[in-house]
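Re-run with default settings, no changes from the original entry. Doing this only to confirm the output is reproducible before filing.
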Amino acid sequence: MNVRFYVYLRQQLHLKDKLPMQLMLQADPSEEIIKNYIQRGQCFVSKVDDRIIGVYVLLPTRPETVEIGTGNSSIGQLALYQKCGFRIIGVDRDFFIKHYNRGDTIKVIVFMLPVCM
């Protein structure tokens, strides 16, 4: 059996940097909304061999917490976040109808993980 090990590099992007928009659009269908929250948060990418393999944006919310939002149809993500210690703190009903002008009835479930200082 061949086993490969990769070194992952986490790098913060700045406003002047080119965003991995195609990758971001896989998680959020609105380029306009992505550009809006990029202005308000900190964007990080994960790389292997100079190839971007992941991206996330941190936005300020509550002090000393990390929050994640995901659709209620994302059963795999719901289980993963709970295994990582996140707990559901609320449900934002009609999120996609309000923010994306779409008729989706998917609800966004908000998770919170207190950060130990």
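The chain has two domains: 9-58, 65-114. The chain has a mean pLDDT of 76.
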